[in-house]
Design a protein that fits this description.
Helix content is 34%, strand content 14%.
């Protein structure tokens, strides 16, 4: 039989070898001059399979491992030399060959979902603390002492004179900002005007003192930070604030087999700052980007602010998005289910999470699953779905047609069990039932944790214009601490079976924290009554004679400066202690309530000591 060169067959066999469908031994055998009969017999004896199916799209960059025979022999031609060199370069320093880049075959078949385990609730001590005690878990006394010291040192450095502020005054400053978020005015100065003044703000600190403290507020003294530290952390000016809030978030117990979500949160700021980002799809699209881990109910457990190349991420081999996920799930227990959007989702990320014992679910871009040939969107009807399982049956990719096609990847949920959802049909002009896969239902139920946190913060956000980004970041984390503290309080109330009517909502909780912070003993300032600090529209601290509302428990029971004053009024006032119907002219100067104080009755003492 006439001998032929392998030119006609070489291109096809070379491609099959690159795809991994023909072993390198057959390929080396092909490099020699063969007869046509030998070529056909070699192909028939190989493990070649039909790869023309719709679901078997393979990677052309795959390179097969060399056989034992080819390693001991010298390469005969240029093609064999090329495979030999690539095989050597693909081996790392320890002699272990890395995972092949070949795209595995995903099969169209049902996915077996992970067994759903109920989240184990954390233990409760049965005590519901005061709102101030929840808030001080985020900003403790050490933080306020440090802020007061850094602020005084800054003013001495800039002006030569100390501001003489104290930790108590910084607490008053924080409480005023929390109150301003609850009662909003378009301008800060309106809080001190006589027509619109609010006592919790106007009676706590003078207007000029407030602005002077606001402009000089620092939590870090610049001379204590080295140049290398400044280059390694662009947010060094607010690092104590970040550390204080993160430390409290990390101390929150994690539920075993719980559900968590990871998403982006914007710290709104339109001025100049080190790493300002723009996300047009967000309600406040310009500012600092904060990647947040929350529970499915919205409680923040960890976060990391993006700062460019200096962002402290360790596992960046999969990309920036997956690196944030791997950074935030470090404190989660095994068996947790994490949900994220398409910015983070990749198939290698799901593999990495599963190796850590964590199940991931998220929407995914189609260009990240080129290994699967899916039905075109225009050929699908509303409610149609299809799922593809990985060769090891650990992951699944689901495509579902709603108004548009939705693509999700998961290692926990598949299509089943399928339920019906109600959607508006434009063609029929009525609501209709459409099939919905399980992974879509679970994703919609658990993904919105960060959005819930943003919604709560936006309801009473302290939002004022400023050119100082450190102040903006500080105020943002004050609001975040209030929302997180309220969620902890609400969870404790639920575990203690506190009636819903006795549980404070977010507004009442914030006002209680603000009142407790502003009633802390503050330094009297001579500028309070100075002419330079007042104008015809500014209100001075009024002497209130009408009965006030009951003060918060922190103020009532602090044991400081509760002096009885005998009022010169025509008619006595009703005693404000619960259960007393007597009338009196004795008023507590600090609590501003009338209380009985006589030889036979001492409501004044009982009011300030009863719990």
């Amino acid at each position: 039989m006439k001998k032929v060169k392998f030119g006609a067959y070489f291109s096809e066999v070379h491609q099959l070898c690159a795809l991994g469908l023909v072993s390198l031994k057959i390929y080396n055998f092909f490099l020699e001059t063969l007869t046509e009969e030998d070529i056909l017999n070699a192909l028939l004896d190989s493990d070649l399979e039909d790869f023309s199916g719709d679901d078997e799209v393979l990677d052309k960059n795959y390179l097969p491992c060399e056989s034992t025979d080819s390693e001991n022999s010298e390469p005969d031609d240029e093609h064999q030399k090329q495979f030999s060199e690539i095989g050597k370069n693909a081996t790392d320093e320890e002699g272990i060959r890395p995972t092949s880049s070949r795209r595995l075959i995903w099969k169209r078949k049902p996915f077996s979902p992970r067994a759903e385990e109920t989240a184990i609730p954390t233990e409760c001590d049965g005590m519901v603390k005061t709102p101030l005690q929840y808030f001080t878990r985020y900003f403790d006394d050490n933080f306020f002492e440090n802020a007061a010291g850094c602020t005084n040192r800054y003013t001495v450095l800039k002006t030569g004179e100390s501001l003489h502020t104290s930790s108590g005054e910084i607490k008053n400053f924080f409480g005023m900002h929390i109150a301003m978020g609850c009662v909003r005015f378009p301008r800060i100065r309106m809080y001190w005007q006589q027509k619109f003044s609010i006592p919790i703000v106007a009676n706590t600190m003078s207007r000029n003192r407030f602005f002077k403290l606001r402009n000089s507020f620092h939590v870090v003294f610049e001379n204590d930070i080295t140049e290398s530290q400044k280059k390694a952390n662009v947010y060094w000016r607010v690092q104590p604030v970040i550390d204080a809030v993160r430390r409290a978030c990390l101390s929150i117990p994690r539920k075993e087999h719980g559900r968590y979500s990871i998403d982006e949160q914007m710290i709104p700021f339109t001025g100049r700052c080190p790493a300002r980002q723009s996300l047009p799809n967000k309600p406040r699209g310009i500012g600092l980007k904060n990647e947040v881990l929350t529970t499915s109910e919205g409680m923040v457990l960890d976060f990391e602010i993006y700062q460019g190349k200096t962002t402290p991420l360790t596992e960046e081999d999969l990309g920036v998005g997956p690196a944030f996920v791997l950074r935030l799930v470090q404190t989660l227990p095994k068996g947790s289910k994490v949900f994220f959007d398409r910015y983070f989702t990749t198939l290698p990320l799901l593999d990495r999470l599963l190796a850590k014992g964590i199940f991931g679910t998220g929407t995914i871009m189609k260009n990240r699953v080129k290994c699967i040939t899916m039905t075109e969107e225009r050929k699908m009807k509303r409610g149609d779905m299809e799922e593809f399982c990985s060769p090891d049956d650990k992951h699944v990719i689901v495509q579902w047609k709603d108004s548009k096609s939705v693509l999700l990847a998961s290692s926990a949920f598949g299509c089943g069990p399928v339920t019906d959802v109600k959607r508006w049909c434009k063609k029929e002009k009525k609501f209709m039932q459409f099939a919905c896969p399980s992974v879509v239902r679970e994703y919609n139920k658990s993904m919105g944790g960060v959005d819930i946190c943003d919604q709560l913060m936006e309801a009473y956000r302290t939002f004022f214009k400023t050119r100082k980004w450190p102040l903006k970041v500080t105020i943002h984390f004050i609001d975040l601490a209030c929302c997180n503290a309220w969620m902890e309080y609400r969870e404790d109330c639920r575990k203690a079976q506190t009636p819903l009517k006795d549980t404070l909502d977010l507004l009442a909780f914030r006002l209680s924290v603000a009142e407790a912070l502003v009633c802390i003993e503050k330094k009297k300032n001579v500028e309070w009554f100075s002419g330079s600090d007042t104008d015809e529209e500014e209100v001075l601290p009024p002497k209130r004679r009408r009965p006030a509302e009951h003060p918060c428990n922190e103020k009532r029971q602090d044991g400081l400066h509760h002096w009885p004053a005998e009022e010169d009024i025509k008619s006595a006032k009703m005693c404000r202690r619960k259960g007393c119907s007597s009338r009196t002219r004795t008023r507590c100067e600090k609590c501003n309530v009338f209380l009985c104080l006589s030889k036979n009755k001492n409501c004044f003492k009982e009011y300030h000591t009863d719990k």
